Amino acid sequence: MRVYTDLGRIDKVREVLSVGLRDLDAPVELMSTSPAQYAWLGSSARRRDGGTTAAAASTSLKLQTNLLAPAAAERERRLCDTSAVIRWRRPAMLNADVFNAYFEALTRRRKYAVEEVNFVLDQMKACGVEKDALTYHYLVELHVRAGYDPTGLWEEMKQLVPEMTPLPATVQTFMLRIVPYSTDPSLVVEVTRAALRYGTAIVDKRMLTELMVQWLSPVRTPTHAESNASSGSQHTVAQASRIGLNAASSSSAVQYPPEYVLWLMLELELRCVLEKASFSQYVQRQYFTELLLRCAKCTDAGTAEQVLALMDRQAIAKTAEVLALVVWCWSQALEVEKALDLIEWMALKGYLDQVDCFRKAQIESLRYTMDRHYLMTFTDAIHTPALVERALSHLQARRQKGELVTVHTLDLLVLALARIGEERKALQLVSAYEPRWGVAPRTNTYNALLTGCSRYRSTMLHRVVYKTMKNSGVVPNVLTFRVLIRQAVTSGNIDEAIAYLEEVTTYPGLRVEVEMILPILERAARVGDGETATRVSQYSLKCDIGIDGSVLRSAIQQLTEAGQSVEVLKSQLPLHEALRSRSKAGRQRARNEVLV
Questions:
Q1: 475-596 — its CATH code?
Q2: 73-84: per-residue pLDDT in tens?
Q3: CB of 246 closer than 8 Å to CB of 237
Q4: Which of 117, 540, 564, 585 is the most exposed place for a label (fewest CB within 10 A)?
Q5: What CA–CA distances, in Å, run from 517 to 480, 514, 588?
C-alpha cells in the first residue's frame, strides 16, 4: 500500500485494502471444503473480482461493501463436493498498520471524500482493530483539511484508558493550526504542555516567546520584531476560518491566569540556561510589567513574588512601575508586612519623592491609568483596627531592628486610622512622629487627616487640624484647601468656605482653582443665596477662571425660582465664556482627580 501510495495510485491502494479486508480478517465460520476446491474457489473469486476492479478505480469516492463475503465464491462453494473436509481456524491478521497506510494515502491526496474515511473507520470497528496514535494523527490531518475542528479527537485520546500519548507530529499540527485560533484555554494549555515535553522539536524559544506574548496582553499591539517573527504563520489564518475558528477572536483574547504566563517564562529561562542563550533577548521588561499588572488584577501574590525572583535571577532592573504593581497586588492580598517593606524600599530609592497618593497613578509603559493610586490601595486594604495594629507592630519591629521607617508609610496609617473612625489614634500617631519615629509631619500628613475625617458633617476637627498645621510651620497645598472648602460647604457653612477660598492666595505658589469655586457656587444656588453666588462669580473672574456656562445657567435658574435677582450674574455669563475660550485651563470643567 505504501508503494502504491508513493506512486500515486490510489486505485491500487483501494484494491489492496479490499483484498486485505477479504483475506486477512478472521473467518466467521469454519471452512469446510478440500484444499483443491478452496484454491479453485479463490482463483474464481479473484477472476470475478478482477472485473470489478476497474469500476472500483473509476468510482474513487466509494468502496465495495461486500468484499468481506463475495457472493460468487459463496455460490461456488455451495455447488462443490464437500467429501474432503478441512477444519481450519486462524486469528485475524488485520491490524492498525493496514488502515493507517490507507489513511496515509488519503492525506497525500488533494481531494478525498468524508464517506471514504467513515467507511474505513467502520471497517476498523467491525474488525475489532483499535485506533493507535498514528491513526489519530492521520484523522487530525484529515479533519483539518476537510474543515472540521479536530478538538474532539484530542479529547478522545485523553479519555482513553490508559491515556494515549499523541505523536509529536499531532502536537505540532495542533500548535500550528489550532492553538493560535482556539478560544478554549484548557485545550491550549494541554497542547502546550504536551509540546513542551518534546523539547525544541516542536516549540523553540521564539515560539515560546510568541505564545507568552499572546497569553499576556490580548489588546497590546505587537512590535515590529514580533510581527516579523510571527509572519511565518500567517498562512494559517484562512485555514482557521475554514475549520470554524475565528481568527479575530484568537487564543490571545482569552484571559489566561498569570501563573500560566509565568510557567512559559520559566520554561524559556530553563532553555536559555541549557542552550547558553540570553534570556533578555527574548523577554522584554514590558512583559514583566504586563504580567505583574495581571497579577494585581487577579490578586495573585504568589506569582508576583516569583516574578520578582525571576527578575532578580536575570538581573533585570525593577522600575518604580514594577514595584508599584507589586505593592498593589500585595495590598489586595493582605500581605501587609511585605507591602510595607516594599513601600519603605521604594522610599529609600527615591521613587516616592514628589508622589501624591491622592491622585490617580499611571503606568506609563503600558498606558494604563489606575482607578486609585497604588498607595491608596494599601490604605483601602487595612480597613479594620486589627490590620492597622498589625501594620504598626511591623513598623515598630523595623524600628527596633534599626531599619528605616519613613513618613510615607506613617501617613498611610494615619489615613487608614482616620477612615475607620479612629481619629483620636490618628492624631496621637501624628503627634508621635518626631519623638517616637524620628520624622517630621509634612503637608500630606495633615491632608491624610483631613481627607480621612471628611465623612463627618462637622468642620470642628478640620479647623483644629488646619490650625495645628499652620502652627507647625507646614505649608498647605491645593488639596488642603479643596478638602477644607468641600467640608465647609457640606456642613452648610458657606462663609467659612469663602474664608478658606480667599486665604488660598496668601500662600506663595498657590492659585485658586475651579474645583474650589464650584462647590460654593452650587451650594449658594441651591439655598437661594444670590448675593453669595454673584460674589463668588465675581471672584472667579478676578482670578481669571471661567466657569462653565451650563453650571452658571443652572445656578441662574435655581436663583430665579427662589426669587433672587440674577441680572448681575447674567451679565457675567459672557465674560466667563470668553475666559473659557481664551484660557486653555478654563475651556472645560477640570476633572477632579482628587480621591476624597
A1: 1.25.40.10
A2: 444 454 444 444
A3: no
A4: 585
A5: 14, 5, 14
